[in-house]
Amino acid sequence: MGVEGCTKCIKYLLFVFNFIFWLAGGIILGVALWLRHDSQTTNILYLQLGDKQAPSTFYVGIYILIAVGAVMMFVGFLGCYGAIQESQCLLGTFFTCLVILFACEVAAGIWGFVNKDQIAKDVKQFYDQAFQQALMADSDSNNGKAVVRTFHETLDCCGPDAVVGTLTPLWRDDLCSKDFLKGLLQADASCHKKIDELFSGKLYLIGIAAIVVAVIMIFEMILSMVLCCGIRNSSVY
């Protein structure tokens, strides 16, 4: 015998929440794949300075997001099917998956909060090393110049700070493609500032998505427990 009354409303409400959860998983998966293949980040994070590779901390977070999005889609489908079938076994499995996923999201959020400044810091250090090599007399013997030009062209910046960015075109037009007047008038030409803006904007987007998903997951855990108890009680009568 199926559930009736308020429990039936909870059943369909849980189905709706799970469908939204499934869609959210698809959105997170899509956003993560977009961040993974975004031209700005790929141009910078695929660079190699001699034997030194660009920092990969950002991509670690992206791969975590891809895994989370895929798991969310699977769990959302499991919850929808379990709610429609009124299966205590599927709902119990769904609840367990939600708890594990929620714990992983909290852990990932803590990791991201701890490393949010480190990502930009590592990339800026990598850029500074390339910039110093590019300024050396024997810069043609390494790829420092190519790395620096990639940063400058991708982020539309010049030099690690505004002062260097303004003066560099005077004597190193092979590093900064913009003309001197543009470099003089552009106050935000610092590559350090552009790197901060690049990663802080993307992490802000990830944080908003994580908060929305966490709220949906809490509601789903509550509804799944209530529905499971309602199914158990209805089977007694």
Automatic annotation (TrEMBL):
Disulphide linkage map: C158-C176
InterPro entries the UniProt entry points to: Tetraspanin/Peripherin (IPR018499), Tetraspanin_animals (IPR000301), Tetraspanin_CS (IPR018503), Tetraspanin_EC2_sf (IPR008952)
SUPFAM superfamilies associated with the record: Tetraspanin (SSF48652)
Keywords, alphabetical: Adaptive immunity, Cell membrane, Disulfide bond, Immunity, Lipid-binding, Membrane, Transmembrane, Transmembrane helix
MF (Gene Ontology): lipid binding
Pfam families recorded: Tetraspanin
Matches recorded under Gene3D superfamilies: Tetraspanin (1.10.1450.10)
Transmembrane segments: 12-35, 56-84, 90-114, 203-227
Record-level GO cellular component terms: basolateral plasma membrane
Keyword Disulfide bond part of the UniProt annotation: yes
Cell compartment(s), UniProt: Basolateral cell membrane; Membrane
A GO BP entry: regulation of cell population proliferation
Primary localization: membrane
Bilayer topology term: Multi-pass membrane protein
PANTHER family: CD81 ANTIGEN, TETRASPANIN
Family: Belongs to the tetraspanin (TM4SF) family.
The name this protein goes by in its record: Tetraspanin
Organism: Odontophorus gujanensis (marbled wood quail)
Gene responsible for this protein: Cd81
